[in-house]
Amino acid sequence: MRVGRIEFVNCFPLYHHFARELATRGVGARIVEGYPAALNDMLADGAIDVTLSSSIAFARNAREQALLPQVSISSFGAVDSIQLFARTPLAQIRRVALTEKSATSICLLKVLCREWGIEPEFAPRRGPLSEVLEDFDALLLIGDEALHLLRVEAYPHHFDLGAEWKNVTGLPMVYAVCAARRDFVEARPEAAAAVGAALLASRDACAAAPEATAAAAAQLYDFSQKYLMDYFDKLKFEFTPEYRAGLREFYRRAAAIGELDEVPDLDGPFVAAGGA
Cα–Cα distance between 37 and 118 in angstroms, integer? Predict the structure, then answer.
């Protein structure tokens, strides 16, 4: 079984004990690391069987993929690691450079721009940060890169997309879901369910020991234990009905601006949680 693993620190609580938990369920896996957009493509192309997928990428491929309903990567308000950094106030933003590493955050930004009443030009980020600063009014970054830039305060304005989404909708924002290829689920349903169960068990073990979890993550990433304890506290990994409601609203708004052809049925494609 080929399982994608997002390289960013925000996924650490889901993966820290994942291999151990998967082994206790008698399932082996080859871990394939990458950033979200790359893993989205690998899942769509059949290069991996299951991964934490950008929520918009799952929606665009829902006919070929199924959700594992145990976990998500979400926030109810500020998330810190998805930021629009700007040289100007919102109303004056004309050109935005987009990260190449994400799909959901780009779609979310476009949804929010409609709510803000602005219609900027979007272009992929290319070149070093200094060049982006010269050519664009704003820059969308995610993951560790966003956290680092937020820490050094290189831009006079920044907008947390999780906080902005909550301001607009009052709902949680789901950035990633656990998705598997439907053909894999049909061929190996117990292995697919084991992945979801192992991710959930890893999350629970990390939540039970927040200081140890942050200390372990600090050994791998350039952040302090204290910083990571605060950051992990902002992240939500459940996928309750409240979070599914937030995801449905995101999909509805994405479809309204032409970013999604069809809103998937979030009650239909779930993989049974049993068999793990």
Answer: 26
Distance CA 238, CA 233 (A): 13
Domains of the chain: 2-75+173-256 (3.40.190.10), 82-169 (3.40.190.10)
User: What are the tokens at 23?
Assistant: 């082994």
State how far the Cα of 242 lies from the Cα of 164, in Å rounded to an integer.
18
- 66-125 tens-digit pLDDT: 999 999 999 999 999 999 999 999 999 999 999 888 889 999 999 999 999 999 999 998
| pTM of this structure | 0.92
Dist. CA 2–CA 169, nearest whole Å: 36
Report how far residue 218's alpha carbon sits from residue 136's, in angstroms, rounded to the nearest whole number. Answer: 33
The whole-angstrom distance between residue 165's C-alpha and the CA centroid of its chain comes to: 14
CA separation for the pair 235, 176 (Å, rounded): 12
pLDDT digits (tens, 9 = 90+) for 247-261: 999 999 999 999 999
